[in-house]
Design goal:
Number of helices: 21
CATH architecture of the largest domain: 3-Layer(aba) Sandwich
CATH superfamily of the largest domain: Alkaline Phosphatase, subunit A
Helix content: 40-55%
CATH topology of the largest domain: Alkaline Phosphatase, subunit A
CATH class of the largest domain: Alpha Beta
Structural class: alpha/beta
Shape: elongated
Number of domains: 2
Distance between the termini: 86 Å
Length: 627
Amino acid sequence: MSGLESTECGPPRGGLRFPALIWALLHVPLFLACYAGSIADAIQRTPPGYRLALAPTFLPQAGLLATLCWLVGLPLSLRPRLYRWGAPGLVGLATVAIALDSRVYQAVGFHLNGFFLRVLLQPNAIREAGVPHRDVATFLALAVLLLVAEVWLGGRFLQRFAADRWAWSWALLLIVLSAGERLYGGALTVYAGPAAFAASMVLPLQAPVRMEREVMDLLGRPMVDPFAGAGREAARLPAGIDPSAVKLARRPDVLVIVAESLPASHLDAATMPNLWRRAQEGGARFTRHYSGASSTSYSLFSLFYGLQARKLESIVGAGRRPVLFPALRQNGYQMRVSAASCVDWMGLRETVFGGVRPEELKTWCEGGAGDNRDQEMLADAQGFVDAADARPIFLFVFSFGTHFSYYSPPSAPAPFQPAWDGVGGVQGTQAAGWLIENRARNAAHLLDGWLEGFLTHFEAKRGQRPLLFFTGDHGEEFRQKGHIGHGSAVTDEQIHVPFMVTGDGVPRGSFDQVTSHADLVPTIFGLLGDGHPPELYSDGMNVFQAPSDRFVVSTVGWEPRYAVIGRDLKVAMYAGLTSEVTDPEDRPLPDGRARLAAHAAQVMRALRGADGSEPTARVEPGPQHAP
């Protein structure tokens, strides 16, 4: 048989592998066609000078998908007669899955995962999600026809072109080309910005591997801003609406305080007594507030852009800046951003705070876990307040002391004992979780005292209370579910954070509607009297108008782990085919399948960036006074 592995009754064994690979590669144009709309959108969001360079990257990505289809079917090649029909059948199944995934991605920006599979398997959920049964029937009929055609045509193709070729060599070459595309994509990200990385995630099965650092090490070039330079600032786009269109009827001082790594449970009477008292006496506290992400850069993006954190790369990469800062400046606000938690290494200076003038931003990037940079930051903020004129103030304060390993010097009050001594890194410490949490609470207690002194001085100097917003950038886990710190999961401990609002005209009480970091900007504009609907510029809403049946979205940020959270239901999704249905505290639900089916439409709307509530059942909450 001229070197072919053969059987007396069937086709050659090794000779079918090469045509099977070619058959899979013939589907590359079909894969690209399925995602054509999403690819076009991704290229459009890239800075103009890099769009042509980005376009070729999708071809090796699609080639990798085809190669993976071939690799999955290789075990069948040990039985040539089965392989002749089975290999095309597997490629056909993959094509159907890709066609479905492309439609899901186009609609909601997520790839097919366990949640969407659950929806597909539940007729009621499909109907409530707004997908007519006739559309499902049409898709299934086309899928069956495609599979039949794949098996028949593919089987004949394999038999006709059976040959003993170097299939493994060709497959290895395709994989090497895919690795080269990752490196090339890393170079594009360095020069074109995060939009290039966002584009690399349009096709499925692309691992979120960032190669920017390797490229910079190789080329010795720093990350550059593709929108910087003379004449290029005009390319900057506000997020949603023109800042000059924002008209504020009220102009009180606005103070936003964000504490690093602060879980919701740490805003209580024992840990942060001063802020707790302020919330009880003259403000609102939202007990079901969720960070946009369990990592800092993504959560701050969500706070100040008013968008879901998963959109960071595409929005920032398109050159968009938050509407908040220029809108406040247009309305006469003096501005200061004081960040003890360094915003340089996370790229926040050029993105989230890109609309803040250099003289308005002060950040601290030096020092270790034992420094007192929060005191220095508050002193800087106090100096700004003292030097301000009669115009209204917008001040953002971002503390660092509550970040691991939690600043708690021996001389500071430490009501929570015994506590971890702070020795050992986040991966190296062997201390019990509750000891680590005691140290974190002591750090929060210390910060609370410093903030109270600053707020007292602020009110005395300005002669009035500011409109104060306080939250954590994300939460923190203390081994409750196997993690220390944050940025590793979407557990309740890592994404559930405190949120309080105080000031004149703020409704008083404790509210249990589900709210999100994406709500900050709409809430500020709403309380200041702007009349624009939040959906024009935000995925969020005014927290005081949040309905009781709402769902919000959170993510890890740097990897595709997401959670959609409602009052009594949480759906955690991962890249791939897995999902978990629990209550918001991550406890299993015996009726989880039924609850998911009942709320599928709301969850789908939340994923699309809508408010995630039933449009016919909006509830205007009244204040519920906390005990």
